[in-house]
Specification:
alpha/beta; Alkaline Phosphatase, subunit A; 4-stranded mixed sheet; about 25% helix
Length: about 500
């Protein structure tokens, strides 16, 4: 078989775990669900880190953040290893990248790619490419009527006002109604660029395979959606999230840290009970759910175009997210932080490859977005010039998922708050060690919302010790410094390698 083409789709901050699973409205992701039927749907996929920057470096290198060094957002540790993009380019692939970068130094254009990519987080609405897109389709500049805002960045966005996204980065922690056509949203702008590239690829009839990476800014906040999507989720139909009223007892202090206005006190602590009435949270969740559906529709345009052009016949397609969304969970949070709850760590992940991956498969094997670059290179008959941390999902699938992990480890180095932690998950349990704070142990089968920390349970002491031994052995094998010193020592060792220092560090 010829080397496959690659279509790799990554959305940002995908609300996924538990919302609509047990009660309340199901979040419509019709395009993802339809796509997942064409291959394998991984229902126990984890992110390697709860933050964008570290995870995005992981999915370029196949390495954990304790190996690649980009441990926080915008540390900008120089790339010391080749990314999978570099390797594909060196081996004859036509490499294209459209969308968000936020993986540290530079952009994808410095790793052998053509396309559309700006440094750091970025704001697509300010770019000349977006302005030209509006002119081409005679679209107005997007305008939003703001409904709710947490505004931790002091952007002076007020409910009721008409807002234009003209800030340096499109990370407004707010929700509202997009008054202009849905095509003015960045997701449809990116989808349009990707479709045009696919059309050009078809016309060129170049024998070299292509790799197309598409990174959306959504469904990360701001949750700005058109009325048609907002109407899909009446706020009054959304029941209170099970951990919304949780007092965060017997939890590490990172659960009680908060920076969003309205729910945080002057010392940066989450106010309990949550001071924002549930009716407002219902509105926020309505727009959050709608944003997920809106981005899903934009991705669907690209997949349909690929099939329409007949380019899916020898193409590995992967669709996932960098991490999840903590909205309304564990005391009523907004965004996410360094706590490694399932709502943040679990991500959707599906993969198809005609003639190689059998359709309509569903597996609960422990996998991660960390595995994707290794999988892509394997499909192309290539490999990293170092030993990656990620596994080959194609090999796992070919074994009928008999080859699978017994456990997976995620890690964090904090976000606003200082917190260094490792989280180990098995098929049933979750064990998290937080440096200089209490550890966590949950039975995910009996307690999927992580309401009861079993770390102090005498009846679970043997289990805790077993999981602790597994984690210590893993850290030793990884040559990680997690147990070598306190958090300050570990953080300073990593941050000294970066070219910028994150806020509050």
């Amino acid at each position: 078989m010829d080397k496959p083409n690659i279509l790799y789709i990554m959305v940002d901050h995908q609300i996924y775990y538990r919302h609509g699973w047990d009660f309340g409205p199901k979040i419509r992701r019709d395009n993802f669900e339809e796509f997942a039927l064409s291959g394998v749907n991984f229902t126990r996929a984890y992110s390697s880190n709860p933050l964008c920057g570290p995870t995005r470096r992981c999915v370029l290198t196949g390495l954990y953040s304790h190996h690649h060094g980009e441990i926080l957002n915008d540390v900008n540790v120089p790339f010391s290893e080749k990314t999978y993009l570099d390797i594909l380019t060196e081996n004859g692939y036509r490499n294209y990248y459209y969308g968000k970068w936020h993986a540290g130094n530079g952009t994808a254009l410095e790793h052998g790619c053509e396309g559309y990519c700006y440094p750091s987080y970025g704001n697509p609405y300010l770019t000349p490419e977006y302005q030209n897109y509006l002119k081409e389709y005679d679209l107005p500049k997007p305008k939003i009527k703001i409904e709710c805002t947490m505004d931790p960045w002091r952007l002076d966005i007020k409910p009721g006002e008409i807002y234009v996204q003209d800030k340096e980065w499109t990370n407004e922690e707010a929700s509202g109604i997009l008054l202009t056509p849905k095509e003015t949203h960045e997701a449809f702008f990116l989808a349009d660029m990707a479709c045009k590239r696919l059309e050009n690829i078809k016309k060129e009839e170049n024998r070299n395979p292509f790799s197309l990476r598409l990174d959306f800014w959504g469904p990360h906040a701001p949750y700005f959606v058109t009325q048609e999507y907002a109407d899909m989720y009446p706020p009054e139909d959304i029941p209170k999230y099970p951990t919304f009223d949780s007092a965060q007892l017997e939890k590490p202090s990172c659960y009680r840290k908060e920076h969003n206005l309205g729910i945080a006190d002057n010392e940066g602590n989450l106010i309990y009970p949550n001071p924002i009435p549930w009716e407002k949270w219902q509105l926020l969740l309505s727009r959050c759910y709608a944003h997920s559906t809106m981005v899903d529709d934009a991705v669907g345009i690209v997949i349909r175009k690929l099939r329409e052009l007949g380019l899916d016949e020898n193409t590995l397609i992967i669709w996932t997210a960098d991490h999840g969304d903590a909205i309304a969970c564990q005391g009523g949070k907004f965004d996410k932080a360094s706590y490694m709850v399932e709502e943040v760590m679990r991500v959707p992940l599906a993969m198809s490859y005609k003639g190689v991956i059998k359709p309509k498969q569903v597996t609960d094997a422990l996998v991660s977005n960390l595995d994707i670059p290794t999988t892509i290179l394997s499909a192309a008959g290539l490999s990293f010039d170092y030993e990656p941390d990620g596994k080959n999902l194609l090999e796992m699938e070919a074994s009928g998922f008999k080859k699978r992990r017994k456990f997976f480890v995620s890690e964090t180095y904090g976000h606003i708050e200082r917190n260094v932690a490792k989280s180990l998950v098995t098929s049933r349990y979750k064990y998290t060690v937080n440096k200089e704070d209490i550890s966590e142990l949950y039975d995910l089968a009996l307690d999927p919302y992580e309401t009861r920390n079993l770390i102090f349970s005498e009846s679970h002491l043997t289990l805790k010790n077993e999981l602790d031994e597994i984690l210590k052995n893993w850290v030793k094998e990884e040559k990680d410094n997690f147990f070598d010193g306190d958090s300050d020592y570990i953080l300073n060792e990593f941050l000294s390698k970066g070219t910028s220092k994150p806020r509050d560090y």
